[in-house]
Amino acid sequence: MGTVRMTPRDTPCIFCAMVAGTLPCHAVYEDEHLLAFLDHRPVNPGHVLVVPKRHESDFHRLASTLYGALMQLAHRLGKCLAHLYQPPKVGLFGIGFHVSHVHVHVVPLYAMADMTAEAFERAQRTSPAAAVLVASAAQIRQALAVMAEDDPPA
Ligand SMILES: [Zn+2]
Predict the structure, then answer these.
(1) What is the pTM of this model?
(2) Which residue from 21, 47, 69, 138 could staple onto 42, CB 3.0 to 4.6 Å apart?
(3) How far apart are CA 65 and CA 71, in angstroms?
């Protein structure tokens, strides 16, 4: 009598599907190890997620070099979002209860309340038009392309 044990590797992972290209996403950056794309249920416009391409459940399980690359990309994206959206703050955080694949949120923030569980639940019920996401992704891709890694903070 077997109990089926599900590990994160066995369950369908939407971020792995995006990395594989079987689930579409609004990508803003991709390299050998990392993918960044717009959250399709953004807390605010410009809400980006950065993920390692290889499935891992927790940031502290990543190799430190990969973790460093992930955070460096989040840093660059933060500069782009600050430049494009001019919010009072750009937030950076990892939570991970919804999808068990390491992801860092980089989000234009306008108030402390943007970072609450309620704000995230409200975002889950909204769905921006695809055209808006397409336009935002194009803007962010362009800002990243013209921004050198060592540019001073915006
Ligand atoms: Zn995954």
Answers:
(1) 0.87
(2) 47
(3) 10
